[in-house]
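ASSEMBLY PREDICTION REQUEST
Request ID: AP-0331
Submitted by: J.K., bench scientist
Number of chains: three
Total residues: 1024
Priority: normal
Notes: Please return the full assembly, not individual chains.
Input sequences:
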Amino acid sequence: MSAGTSALPLVGRDRIIGYGLMVVAVLCVVGPFAWILMSSFKHQIAILTGAWSFTPTWSNYAEVLFGRRSDFVGNVRNSAVVASVSTVLVLVVGTLAAYSLHRFRWARWVTTGFLGWTLIFHMIPALTLVGPWYIAFRELGWYDTLGGLILTHVTMNLPMTVWLMMAFFSEIPPEIEEAARVDGCSPLEAFRYVALPLAVPGLIAAGILAFIFSWNEFSIALNLTARDTATVPVAIARFAQQYEVQHSQMAAAAVISTIPALLLMALGQRFIVRGLTLGSVK
Amino acid sequence: MHILNRWFKHWSLLPAVLLFLLLTIYPMANLVRMSVSTITFAGGAAHWAWTPLANLQLLTNDAVLGAAALNTAIFVVVAVAIEMALGLALALLVARLSRGKGLARTVMVLPILVPAVAIGSMWKLMYNYDFGVFNQALTAIGFGPVNWLGSTSVALLAVILVDIWHWTPFVFLILFAAVEGVPTDVIEAARIDGATPRQITWRIIIPLLKPALAVALIFRSILAFKTFDEVFLLTSGGPGTSTELVSLHLYKVFFEQNQLGYGAMLSLAIIIAIVAFLLVSRRALTLRAMA
Amino acid sequence: MQTMKRLLAATAILAASVVAGIPVQAQQPFAAVGAQPPITILVNSSPWYAGFEKAVELYEKQTGNKVKLDVTPYGGMLEKARNAVRGARSPYDLINLDTQWTIEFYEGGFLSPLKDVDAAFDLPKEVLSYGDSGYWNADKRWRTPQGGKLMAWPPNGNVLLYVYREDLLKAAGIAPPKTWEDVLASCAKLQDPGKMYGMVMRGERGNGIRFDWMYFMLGKGATVVRDPAAGDYTVTINSPQARAALDLYLDVAKRCGPPNAGALGQGDLIQLISTGKAAQGMVVSAAWSNFDDANKSAVVGKIAAVAVPQPAGGKPAALLGNWNMAIPKNIPDAQKQAAIAFSRWFLTSGAQRVYAEAGAIPVREDTFRSDLAQNPKFRWMPAYLEMQKYATQELGYAEGAQVEQILGLRLNQALIGELSSGKALNLAAKEIEELFKKSGRRTGALPPLPE
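STATUS: Completed
Returned structure:
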């Protein structure tokens, strides 16, 4: 069974308008990012004057990557570990939970209680959350460890993952899974070989979002890490000093931090598509 | 395998429940306990006094809270509505293009991939009165410069604009995935029945997207209520109270003023407001769907 | 063994200097502190961090002691410091506190008084006092050495400097202003909206406008409360003098500043001055290094600094924004000793010189008066020392953060024209009095100003 609206392609004049609109949208989105990219090659003074003609410089990148005070490579490595591992974990835990709640007949109080609790938890401002976590993690010896941070990021991203995956599972017509059960699939097999392959677009979206939220998370990382475990957002915030922002270095750091993130997301997508559509029952 | 199968229903939910029990009960209980207390520090230790009414009274006497609530309401409704509409339109559009889907998805990720502190400071530069790119463009085409962040009538709009740029991709990613998940044979069947693409979009695809739309709306609203970085970095709530949002106000009360009890009360009030907002918007949506 | 070796070395130096007949102090610009366990310092990323790091490296080399620095964004400092002292054991042995945060930490009993750790520790007399923000008198709930204990030492202190374009003022035949009336007169010549702003200062809601306006307030002899050191918290912010100060501030902002005066923060001022868009400005001393850096500035070598003007017939005034290094209570004694050892070393003239040469603002007066001041790179130093003479701490009470937010909002509303100056100050006075009443202070109010 295939999915997607490729069965409904735009044709003729609509097609041209459609591509036109997409180009406009892409430009709107890319514009400010291109501006950041441009800034990363400018000296601070050229950024401050908003100059369009300037002599490009690599010095901001050199400063961020190789500056004596910088441990940006280490920060990127920490972020890569935390974001990747927490994304994998949250996808596994969240997808299983979503499927369980979606497919099986749980008592109403379980479903409502669990989903309600995840939502309420999601509404708590991080500010009020971090203090208790800090105290608990110091006691448990999880402070200043990547493992501790990963655990908090899994928890933080779990509500959205569960809700998203439930939405995507509910898109799958129930007859398909029923047919598989009639063919002799166990519930686990129906999940693994029928539902999961059909939910691949959802898994990718949920994975991308969880990855990005983890990659960019600041408050928790700030409080639960120290020098050796600091992540990219904490490092980038250092360029916003008490009185002024070091725009040029911040821009370079922002650009550098997006590259490994994009690569990891691309790899992750390929992995999900290959791993889950392989051996699926169509 | 047999055991795994037999208890699948139960063990599949277990890790999530355990994680939540482990990591959220304590902070949540702590928050509630704080909200009914006044906390002072002396001798290196915290002293808790039971004062539920005092914190409630602070809530009603807070001079800035009214403005913050109004701004937040405007911010959430306007920003989320536009982001939902744009995100949906883009998702439907991109899904129907034969090429460029991968590119679109990659590009769309960029705004949410850049750390908020970088986004805030970069947009602040772009909005700059004397040197910013917007005023450069406006001056070039013959309009006067706009006082983006320094005028009470424009500042909130400027902040909303950043939010739309920043978060429309979030809605797009979710809805695009949902459109991709619509089974092809449903669409083909409709086409064979003679439905036009417009009818298919409105009568078949969008109704199928409802769960995803709901999730996008819920999570986008919650995040919008919690918006902090953008406004903190762009305006700090000024000029006057024109861009004061409840999350920013909470930051000032809880963090800068160290009023833990009142701050906790305020966060609970925010949670109640979000729940009310979600219930009302769900209600409004179902009513519209029925009409 | 290590200790033994060091002791011997120190004795040798001592003996040598005695033999040479030179006072030990002058001969020995660094302190010998012995072997200490490694310490961790919570320090903010800042323009002076490079200097701090240089000094720390030298300390490690000289003493063999290890120092770990946790460099934290400014926006995360307070949170990390609070977490550290509120937990069971602080991960940091020294924490750096912005002056406005100190009261919370002193009053909460989170810190070790420095003399409790080492009775022999004292601030060298050459170290600038910075309004005595390092002392805490718990009975009076006030930061003062009178009956107060030494809780912290200053690694850095900022005041505002009045900077101006030497070339522009000379060309226009304007002398560096001494009063705000001079400033207004200069703006009549310099102000050219869209091209050049006469004088820029902060107007941003919050700390920005509160801090900068207080230079006017103190200059006019006005106060926020009558005599907080003596426990009299009668609110005096709506006095006629305070109103005159606000009217003067508004006048300067309108006649010298840009249309977005109400949104200007320190970063905006630095931008306007270093791009050559502002002829004069009131900026924090930490910003100085920007103006002489060709990568950051279009006005290299063209900026000069003097003391901030005062109102005609008023008095000179300055407000401090300094940092305070303190030792958390919740660390083992050996760690506290190691922290004291570093502190003692850091405040020596030798360390301060290294610190200053690497771009930081030193905290010892003799460093400012040394040959460094002859270097054009440090031409701001005389103005800085001049400001130190009148520099005071404001809002030095537990309610300080809340008072700042009240004032920061009401003043900003006056600036953007939402409130008249009288109304803004009356409102602020009412809210501040309310606040003091709630916290049980002896308070009262002046009759309201005509609105």
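REVIEWER COMMENTS: Chain C touches chain A at residues 40, 44-47, 49-50, 53, 68-76, 79-80, 83, 86-89, 91, 266-267, 270-271, 274-275, 284, 286-287, 290, 294-298 (CB under 8 Å).
SIGN-OFF: pending second reviewer
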